[in-house]
Amino acid sequence: MADNNPFPGENNTGHIWDDNIRELSNPPPGWWMISFWASIAFFIGYGVLYPFLPIGEEPTKGILGWTQIGEFNKGLDEVNAVRAPYEAKIKDLTAKQILEDDSLTTYTIASSKVLFGDFCAPCHGGGGQGGPEYPVLVDDNWLYGGTVETIEQTITNGRKATMTAHANILKPEEMEALVKSIMDGKPTEEPLYAAKGCIACHGADGKGLQVLGAANLTDKIWRFPAQDQAESVRHTIMHGVNFAGDPKTREAIMPAFGERLSKDDVKKLAVYVYKLGAGQ
Ligand code: HEC
Ligand code: HEC
Prior knowledge:
By secondary structure, the chain is mainly α. The chain has three domains: about 1-60, no CATH class; about 70-160 and about 255-275, Cytochrome Bc1 Complex, Chain D, domain 2 (Orthogonal Bundle), CATH 1.10.760.10; about 160-250, Orthogonal Bundle (Cytochrome Bc1 Complex, Chain D, domain 2), CATH 1.10.760. Helices cover about 45% and strands about 5% of the residues. It contains eleven helices and six strands. Helix 4 (about 100-120) packs across helix 11. The longest helix has 25 residues, at about 70-90. The chain is elongated. The site of one heme C (HEC) has 24 residues, from helix 5, helix 6, strand 6 and helix 11. One heme C binds near residues 142, 253 and 257.
């Protein structure tokens, strides 16, 4: 074919269709060849330097000795180096002493966010906003008290308060009188409050006794908030809280974290929660 190539002097392969459509055999452009060889060089260079061919269980290691986990650990070491001096101080201080040191408090709050998210948010919400079953931690209103020591005790040992069910103790009209007085925020003005023993747990002033975790009934800040708040108050009075023997009783158990978390983590969370609630 090449001998009777009708296009002599042209670098074609001799494949010709329809008399003049030819297959040429020109070399690729220079830039293309450079990229081609460069990519091969990169391929070989990379293979020599880094983990590469998956032969057997492990890939070839590469002469730099780089590994993903090594890179990760290096990053971790850097973070730990920054944290170490703070962590060492926290170990030796009480929660209250941490709060006296601004930079340590800032560090503690930042480093407790994840702990709170993992262990507390499922019940108390991501920001400590609480819910129908779980108390709000962002306000200044505390069932058990808002000193950092009390909060630390709550986290370490958990809490389980009890309120008696009154469904069988109160007549319907007595129940309604008590519900109304609480909805008005003036339970102590209702004689039944003292007569029926509410006073023993909720106190002479109706503001609750923190040693018992009994809610303040005068502030209209609800431990068990609901659309129909009067109904929720009625339900609590009828069925009580954690009251064995009444299947409709409210369950309110704060689990103990003393075994699950280290002392330092509990301390940090106490500082975190204290700051959420802006203190007592
Ligand atoms: C399983 C759900 C649950 C988890 C998880 C949980 N809590 Fe609680 N927490 C409760 C309940 C319920 C109460 C209310 C107890 C009561 O009403 O007597 C409570 C009460 C509290 C109180 C007392 C509030 C007050 O007004 O005195 C604090 C403080 C608290 N929780 C902090 C935490 C922290 C910090 C964590 C994470 C380490 C956490 N909780 C995890 C359910 C939970
Ligand atoms: C044995 C102690 C005890 C007695 C007696 C008691 N309470 Fe309580 N009450 C509590 C505790 C503790 C709580 C908070 C429960 C919790 O959140 O874990 C509570 C919660 C409540 C709540 C819910 C408040 C809210 O914010 O949602 C109401 C309402 C209430 N009590 C009314 C009464 C009335 C009315 C009486 C008297 C008929 C009474 N209680 C008697 C211990 C008691």
